[in-house]
Amino acid sequence: MFLENTVNQKEQFGWIEVICGSMFSGKTEELIRRLKRAQFARQKVEIFKPAIDVRYNETMVVSHDANEIRSTPVPAAANIPILADGCDVVGIDEAQFFDDEIIRVCNDLANKGVRVIVAGLDMDFKGNPFGPMPHLMATAEYVTKVHAVCTRTGNLAQYSYRKSKNDNLVLLGEVEEYEPLSRAAFYKAMMRDKVRNMKVNDAEEVTSKQKNTDA
User: Is 94 a residue of the active site?
Assistant: First the structure.
């Protein structure tokens, strides 16, 4: 996408671009590509990511293909406006991990003439809309949904299936914890998990009842 120039050059407002999709879909890769293009154009660029994201590097935004760009880790979205003062372009990675304040921050920056590029997961591991991403997608001028390849069917994947039993909403991980699945594969995997959990619970209930009867 070539979004560096607007038709009406007198318009002082910026805009928001959202890059979303599942794990391993190339979101960060596309974010880095757009930010590097802006740097080549000698625009002032700042990149931010949540401080909790230390999977590859504490200060670099790194894609699964090992492309990287220097960033500033921030503990909260409220830190971004001060650090982004005077920028032409602001990039934000893993936006789903920020609180809802990120919505106001992105819109305020765009209203001040900044091009804001946001990347993040649109759905969590249960297939539900993730954090502030739906609101950002709704208010953005441009939304790009990228897809991974399903590890079980070979079709396009849009779901991030969690293989581990950890039920925390936020769980940083790679191929050990997640795999990209198509709609059909995700539905089947979730149904298998549900049946497996039901069997475990039923067995526990039977054991409990037997103990009560014996007593």
Answer: yes
